[in-house]
Structure formats: structure tokens, C-alpha cells
Amino acid sequence: MSSKKWLITGGCGFIGTSLIQQLLKNDAHTDIRILDNLSVGSEEDLAEVAEFNKISHPDAPPEGVELLVGDITNAQDCLDASKGIDIIVHLAANTGVGPSVEDPEGDMRANVIGIFNMLEAARTNAVNKFIFASSGAPIGELKNPPIHEELAAHPVSPYGASKLAGEGYCSAYYHSFGINTIALRFGNVYGPRSKHKASVVAKFIKQAINGETCEIYGTGLQTRDFIYILDLVDAIIKSAQVDIGGEVFQIASSKERTVNEIAKIVEQELKHHGTNLKLKYGEARPGDVMRNFSDTTKAKKILGWHAITNINYGINKTIENLIKNLYPK
Question: Could you tell me the residue ranges of all domains in the chain?
């Protein structure tokens, strides 16, 4: 894998910088190009994990770590970024149910046009491996989880619909053009480097550190599957190493936890750092599902992957990192 040239879209974000950090830890000479519009992650975030060169119009494969500032909704940016690349990891996206309900057109442009442009760029530039960051959201409301790959999709939010479209295009580009696409349905990701995240673990920790009251939408009995960032990065890397295409994998912990349960763990771990968690309950959000967790048997069998991180350990590491980043000494 060390000789492969990587393109990571959204590489300045939480998952992207964590992936880059691990790739360079595995081999300091890994060649990586990042395509990012810097709407969430920043050059400073990237600089925390790698020395990099900022480029404008790549005409050769990447050498070392390169940053191309551009947008996945711009087809030419995608074509330029994909030149000389062996593996594309497509992380750039509009994320979350709430933003997709507020702006469904924006969600569609980022998540549907964005992946179409990237797949077309992969086809044009003969990139053989394409890993897509999907979600459990395409499945929608399921009365009796766990989610698995053979279930019919019935998304209940624009976000779920746009991720389902991405999975569909990945399947089509494998069968029509032979690109080895893999869609990874990430659970709720948490961990160090998540200072820009608005999902429940990072949000609760940041609000508690700032002395704010944390709001749980609805009763808090809704369930999610929480996966630690290093487990997720391991799944991405293992996906790049298998010679298969047209596949979808659930990437999560296979454990169902209520939001109330997560809040309790966050509260316990924050106390070790001298911080209290204050909670209030608000209205349920449109598009949210009540139960969501995954069966990861397929990933274990085909990718040789499963999540290993204890959630108390993971949340404590997240707290340590966020305190360090938000209040550096």
C-alpha cells in the first residue's frame, strides 16, 4: 500500500486528518493529495497531522502530502485532483440529518452531484479504487434493528436519500465501468480531532467545557451505534487493501446505545476532568429515526475488520483532546 497514491476529499476534516495521520504513521513516505473547500476543516487542522504543499493545478501524481483547495461540486476540480491517483477516499459531504432538512437542495448538490463528479473523475483518470463514506441513514426507520446490508432502503431524511444515491452510483460505476467501489456505512463517529463536529458526543463535551447546557432532542431513548475514529480509519484502510467492488459494508460497533446512555458516560468521564454536564430535553427533530445500530458480520468476514475500542476509553480520549484543543495551555 505504501506505493499507492491517495486522494482524500474532505481531507482537512475530522475523519480525513485522522486517516492521514494513520497513513503517515504506517508509512511516513505515503503520497496523499487532499481536495477540500475548507468550509469545515482548515489548513491549520491539516498542519497538525502533516507537513504539506499547497498546489493549484496538479499535472503529476502527488509527492508527499498535497492540498488542492477546490470543491467536489466543480467537475474540473475533481478531474484535476484525481490525476495520477490509485485510491480515492470520498469523505467530502454535507453531513447530518438536521442540515439536510433545513437545506435539501444544498444537501443534494454536495452529496449527489459531488459523488457523481468524483466517480466521473475516477473513470476519466482510470482510478481503480473508490471508497465512499456513506451512512446508516439510507435504511431509514427500522422497527427491529440491527441494520445490515441486505435490507431495503427507505430513507426518511434528505441526507439519507442523498447517501443512498451515492451508494447507487457506486454500484453503477462498478458494474458499468469496472471501478472497485466500496461504500462504508459509518456509524456515529466520535474521537480526538472532532472539534468541528456537531454530533452528540463532541457537541456534549464542547458544551460542557464551555459551561453550556446540553440539549437532548426528544426523550433520549433514541438509539445509535457509536464508533471510535481509529476503528473507523482501520476500516477505510482495510477496504483499500481488498480487491473487490460494488460492495456495501456496515462500519460501526454493533452495539445499540441510547442517547441518554451516552450522555451518562460523557458525564462520568467529564467528572474526571473537573467538568460537569448539564442536560435539558427539547423537541424531537424531523427526520430522526428512533433506533439505529448495525450488524457488522459482513465487514468482519470480508474485510477482516471489527471495532475494538471500549466506549469509556474512547470518550475519555475525546475529552482529553478537546480540552487540549479548546483551551491550550
Answer: 5-190+226-254+293-309
Residue 281: alpha-carbon gap to chain centroid: 27
Give the tens place of pLDDT for each residue, 176-203.
999 999 999 999 999 999 999 888 999 9
Encode pLDDT of 13-30 as tens digits.
999 999 999 999 999 999
CA angle 162, 262, 254 (to 5 degrees): 60
Residue ranges of the chain with per-residue pLDDT less than 50: none
Architecture of domain 5-190+226-254+293-309: 3-Layer(aba) Sandwich (3.40)
Question: Beta partners for 88?
Answer: 7, 130
Residue 328 has a pLDDT of: 66
Q: Is the pTM of this model over 0.90?
A: yes
136 touches 244 (CB < 8 A): no
